[in-house]
Amino acid sequence: MNVSNLKNNGYGDKMKIALVCSEKLPVPPIRGGAIQLYIEGIVPFLIKRHQVTVFSIKDAKLQEREIINGVEYFRVSAKSKNNYVELVSRELSARRFDVVHIFNRPKSLRFFYNASPGSKFILSLHNEMFAPNKIGKEQAVFCLETVHRVITVSNFIKKTVENNYPRAAGKVITVYSGVNPDEFYPIWTEEARKIKQQIKGQFGIGNGKLILVVTRFSEKKGVHLVISAMEEVLKKYPQTVLLVVGSKWYGSNRIDEYVSHVYNLAKNLPEKHVVFTGFIPPRQVVDFFSAGDIFVCASQWQEPLARIHYEAMAAGLPIITTDRGGNTEVIEGYGNGIIVPEYNNSSDFAWAINFLLENPATALAMGRRGRKLAEDKYNWGRLAREILEIYDSIEHG
Fold first, then answer.
1. What is the pLDDT of residues 50-104, one digit of tens each?
2. Are 173 and 152 in contact (CB under 8 A)?
3. Where would I find the H helices in the chain?
4. Per-residue pLDDT tens for 119-167?
5. Apex CA 311: angle with CA 306 and CA 313, to 5°?
C-alpha cells in the first residue's frame, strides 16, 4: 500500500506498522530482553494511532498468532537467524506494510526491503551494530541509504554510526528509552517497605541495607567487582547485604565458568551477605527494585545504555554506574547517582557504596530526582510520542 494513498484506504490516517523484533526472545517479554520490553512498552501508544503487528520468535508458552488489546502478534517458528529473516520476509511480502520498523538487525534490512519494496523502513539500534566487525561496508551503506530514520538508544550509539559512516548524519536520531513508573513503588513508600520485608523473609536476609544488582552473569556486566567491593563495605557496615538478581541467560540458570567464579567469590564473604536469586521473570523483577536501598550497574563493556538505569530511577534508587558507553547520559548532570572513577576497580565501587550508606539524605535526594526523571522524561509515553513523530514524518513527507 502506498503511503500517499492512506487516507483512501478505509483506515483514515492509520498506517499499517510492522515491528520486527530481533530473533532471540519473544514479545511479550516473558523471558526478558531490553528490545522486547521496549516494544511491549510502546505498542499501547502506537495502536491508538496505527495498526500494529509485532513479529518475534515463537515460544512454547505463547501462541503463534494472537491479538492482544488490538495489537497483532505473529511469532515465527524459526530454526535459525536466517530462517527467521526468511519467514518474516515471506509475511511482509504477503501482507504489505506501510512502515517496517526493524530492531537491531541492519544486516537483515536488504531481505525485508526485497520482500516489501513499497514500505518505508525505520531501524532502531540498541547495540553497536555498525561496527566493522558486525556489518560489511556494502550492507551498511545500503541500509543507511534505504531507511527513513535510524533511532538509537543513546548518543554513544548515534556517534558510533556517524563515526563509521559520516553520510548517516541527519538520519540518525537519539530517542532515549523508558519505563512505566506506575509499575514501581518508590523505596520510600509503605508499599515498597512491605515488598522489602517479603523479599527479605523469602531469602533469609537480615535488617541491613540492600545493595541491589540486576544483571546477566557475564564478565562484561561486572558483578564480580561488586562482590569484591563488598569485602570493604562490610568492614564499615557489617549488616549490609548484596542482592544479585539474574542468571547466565534469560530464562535459564545455567552455570558456566564465569558463574562458578562469581559463586566462589561470594563464598569468601560472611554467609548470607551475598544472596543470589537466580532467574526472575521480568514482571517479578519490578518488586526487587522496590526492595533495594542502592542500585549498582557495573558494566565493563561499552554499554549502549543499560535500561536497568530507568528501572532503578522509577523505584527511587540512588544509582552507582560506570562511565562505559552511554550509561552516564542519564546520570551525569542529573544528580540521581554516582559515576565511579575507575570502572574496573572494585575499591571505587566500595567507595561509592560506602559514601551513600554514610550519607542517607544524599542517597534519598538522588533517588527522588531519579523518580522524577522517570515520571517526567524517561517513560514509555514520551518514547512513543517521539516514535510517532517519526512515523508522522513518513506519512506527511
1. 999 999 999 999 999 999 999 999 999 999 999 999 999 999 999 989 999 999 9
2. yes
3. 34-46, 81-95, 109-115, 137-146, 155-164, 190-203, 223-236, 257-266, 282-291, 308-314, 346-358, 360-376, 380-395
4. 999 999 999 999 999 999 999 999 999 999 999 999 999 999 999 999 9
5. 105
The separation between CA 294 and the C-alpha centre of its own chain, rounded to angstroms, equals 19
Residue 154 — φ and ψ, nearest 5°? -160, 160
Distance CA 181, CA 317 (A): 13
CA atoms within a 13 Å half-sphere pointing along the CA-CB vector of 349:
29
Other residues' Cβ atoms within 10 Å of the Cβ of residue 272: 12
Residue whose cell numbers read 535459564 = 252
Cell 572494585 belongs to 346
Which domains does the chain possess?
A: 3-178+379-395 (3.40.50.2000), 181-376 (3.40.50.2000)
**The cell 540498541 sits on which residue?**
126
CB 172 within 8 A of CB 378: no
**Amino acid at the residue 311:** E
